[in-house]
Specification:
The complex is a heterodimer of chains A (about 120) and B (about 110). Chain A is mainly beta. Chain A has strands spanning about 5, 10-15, 20-25, 30-40, 45-50, 55-60, 65-75, 75-80, 90-95, 105, 110-115. In chain A, strands 2, 4, 5, 6, 9, 10 and 11 form a seven-stranded mixed beta sheet that branches. The mean pLDDT of chain A is about 95. Chain B is mainly beta and about 110 residues long. The chains are: A mainly beta (about 120), B mainly beta (about 110).
Chain lengths: ~120, ~110
């Protein structure tokens, strides 16, 4: 079964609203989670590293005030796209490394469409 | 910085073998992955190889690694129409660091 659960799998929202995407590790605790974004017909690009109990680390060019990341527990990280615009429409996916291990698991991904 | 390059398109006939190539720049890469993404779907891990290996075979899939040339390939034997998808090559420094992905190779299988 799935080791990492991501929700929602698909969401449509109106411009200007906010959308929250959840990433849960089901079988193990995770102090770190990674968030990626994939624009249509593009590769997956790392957006940020979510750190449990501290601030997320954002990659260059990613607006931290627009993409809010919260990693409040060892099994849950959330990505909130604030004041969404149509250009934010993308595939967002999280990955979770097993703490102390050498395996990384991906969520199912979330398809966001902003209309 | 780290970079992963792939050819964008590959077209093969059903039943033939497909070979998807990838090059990477970071010689510190320890893990090299192949993922499959079908239209409108998420990522499916196909296989991975450690940098201290030259080859890994798993049923119809064969991964070859030339560490000296930083070249990775994925061979799909007896390619089927269900293999049509985008294949991403990715590398990471360790098992718990973020992956760097190539742009993906779109494999089209002609019946």
């Amino acid at each position: 079964g799935a080791v990492v659960s991501q929700h929602p799998s698909r969401v449509i929202c109106k411009s200007g609203t906010s959308v929250k995407i959840e990433c849960r590790s089901l079988d193990f605790q995770a102090t770190t989670m990674f968030w990626y974004r994939q624009f249509p017909k593009q590769s997956l690009m790392l957006m940020a590293t979510s750190n449990e109990g501290s601030k997320a680390t954002y990659e260059q060019g990613v607006e931290k005030d627009k993409f809010l990341i919260n990693h409040a527990s060892l099994t849950l990280s959330t990505l909130t796209v604030t004041s969404a615009h149509p250009e934010d429409s993308s595939f967002y996916i999280c990955s979770v490394p097993r703490t102390g291990g050498n395996t990384i698991y991906f969520g199912e991904g979330s398809w966001l469409t902003v209309v | 910085g780290e970079d992963v390059e792939q050819s964008l398109f590959l077209s093969v006939r059903e039943g033939d073998s497909s070979v998807i190539n990838c090059t990477y720049t970071d010689s510190s890469s320890t893990y090299l992955y192949w993922y499959k993404q079908e239209p409108g779907a998420g990522l499916q891990l196909l296989t991975y190889i450690f940098s201290n290996m030259d080859m890994k075979q798993d049923q119809r899939l064969t991964v070859l690694l030339n560490k000296k040339d930083k070249h990775l390939s994925l061979r799909i034997a007896d390619t089927q129409t269900g293999d049509s998808a985008i294949y991403f090559c990715a590398e990471s420094l360790s098992g718990n660091t973020p992956l760097v992905f190539g742009k993906g190779t779109r494999l089209s299988v002609i019946a």
